[in-house]
Design brief:
- By secondary structure, the chain is mainly beta.
- The strands form two sheets. The chain has a six-stranded antiparallel β-sheet with strand order 2-1-5-4-7-8. Strands 6-3-10-9 form a four-stranded antiparallel β-sheet, with no helix packed on it.
- The chain has three helices and ten strands.
- 12% of the residues lie in helices and 36% in strands.
- The chain starts with a strand and ends in a 5-residue tail after the last strand.
- It is globular.
């Protein structure tokens, strides 16, 4: 089962770093789904030159945790290698029991190096810690991109596209903000054993 680097600004201030597996509870206390699943995904350009081989796509899911602190979860997408190819991963992308609001942003990146996703999550949350919880969903895509360390814009991770305000109830196929990606998501329920 894939793992994701999970970190909140509260963890940074307390120097606590955690890596959680995706084996979280799948139902919220009110019976709504705690996960969103990618049913299909496609990019016109994966930002990887052909001579470098297959792309290494990952996603950064950004929102506010249950305490109102910024949260950035990184999700590896090792299957997503080629542009102009539709993938059907059925991968869990959002675990709603980690977020305070019913909307998060997803930024898709292509990794040209050996990205340490835990360090990436730490850097993003440290840079985003100044963003205040104003009592409602706040788009974080621009802040996530601005928080990327400058060395990651050389021949390291490349911006691929972003989807804003993905909600718990999302059951759609739509183009991402830059028009490069097409994402299909649906609520996904998993009962506990």
């Amino acid at each position: 089962m894939p793992t994701a680097a999970i970190i909140s600004s509260r963890d940074v201030s307390r120097s606590k770093i955690a890596v959680e597996s995706f084996r979280n509870r799948s139902w919220s206390s009110n019976g709504t789904p705690s996960n969103s699943q990618i049913t299909s995904i496609r990019f016109k350009d994966v930002e990887e030159p052909w001579f470098k081989g297959a792309a290494e796509i990952f996603a950064v899911v950004g929102g506010f945790d249950l305490n109102g602190d910024v949260r950035a979860d990184t999700v590896d997408m090792p299957y997503l290698d080629d542009e102009n190819h539709t993938y059907y991963p059925n991968q869990l992308i959002i675990h709603w029991n980690r977020y305070k609001y019913n909307a998060v942003d997803i930024v898709f990146m292509e990794d040209d190096g050996d990205t340490n996703y835990l360090q990436l999550a730490q850097a993003l949350v440290a840079a985003l810690a100044y963003i205040a919880d104003l009592g409602a969903y706040t788009p974080l895509v621009d802040a996530i991109l601005q928080a990327m360390p400058s060395s990651w814009w050389t021949d390291d991770p490349d911006f691929v596209d972003a989807c804003y305000a993905v909600t718990r109830e999302a059951n759609w196929t739509r183009d991402c903000a830059g028009g490069n990606g097409t994402l299909s998501v649906r609520p996904f329920w998993v009962s506990e054993l």
